[in-house]
Amino acid sequence: MKNYLIIVFLLFTICIYAQNDAKAKFQKNKYELAVSCYKKSDFKNALDLFSVASKIRPENEIGQESSKKVDTLKAILRKEIMQKALGIWRMKGDKPVWAVKTEADSKNKEVEEFIEISENKIIFYEQDKKTLVKKNIKTEDLVYFNRDKSDSLFSAIILSDGTIWNCTVDKNSSILHVINIAKQTEKGVEKIENENPEFFYMKV
Q: Beta-strand (E) ranges in 40-197?
């Protein structure tokens, strides 16, 4: 019986070691791929990979270095998207700009909706299509959503009502797409998995 317990213990120890070894190899592989992407200035993929590597074993050297790189890359990518997003944007609706119905809906509206983005504020306003009179709707602080520092989400913002919106700008800096991915409540962050509200804007 004693020998049996020793054998079981040894097998258990070997299994744990093998699992840890597999994790270490996986983490190293992700880290090396991330470094390769980083050197090629492929910052989005590098961020995704560093994020994965930082979560596998956050306490070791690779995990800590990956976490630092996540912070650095978020700052770089946020600066890039901010440069594209600064300015005034006209809402085109909840469908892609190329959708025919979007243009038809826009023509039937008496007012047009706009947002004006600065480095620390977002101003929402309407403009009468005939008189061109502007009406301020609300002003929000531009606050990045950053609950999990090790995740790869860099362009999500949180508004005062708790809604969390992921923002993307096309390569020509002419189309802004925002999609509601979650909401911060008293119970925590509730993810929106289906039928996410979304809006498309065109640069003025």
A: 87-93, 111-117, 121-128, 134-141, 156-158, 163-169, 175-185, 188-191
AA letter at 164: I
C-alpha 195, offset from chain centre: 18
**What are the C-alpha distances in Å from 124 to residues 28, 78, 102, 133, 198?**
46, 21, 20, 14, 16
Q: With contact defined as beta carbons under 8 Å apart, do 5 and 13 qualify? A: no
* Amino acid, single-letter form, for residue 70: V
**Does 178 have pLDDT greater than 80?**
yes
Please, which residues have CB within 8 angstroms of residue 34's CB and are 6 or more apart in sequence?
Answer: 45, 46, 49, 50, 53, 66, 69
Question: Hunting for tokens 């005062």 — which residue is that?
Answer: 160
| Residue 51 token pair | 């994020």
| Whether this model's pTM surpasses 0.85 | no
Quote the pLDDT of residue 78. Answer: 97
Q: What is the per-residue burial (b if ≥16 Cβ within 10 Å, else e) of 165-199?
A: bbbebeeeeebbbbbbbbbbeeeeeeeeeeeeebb
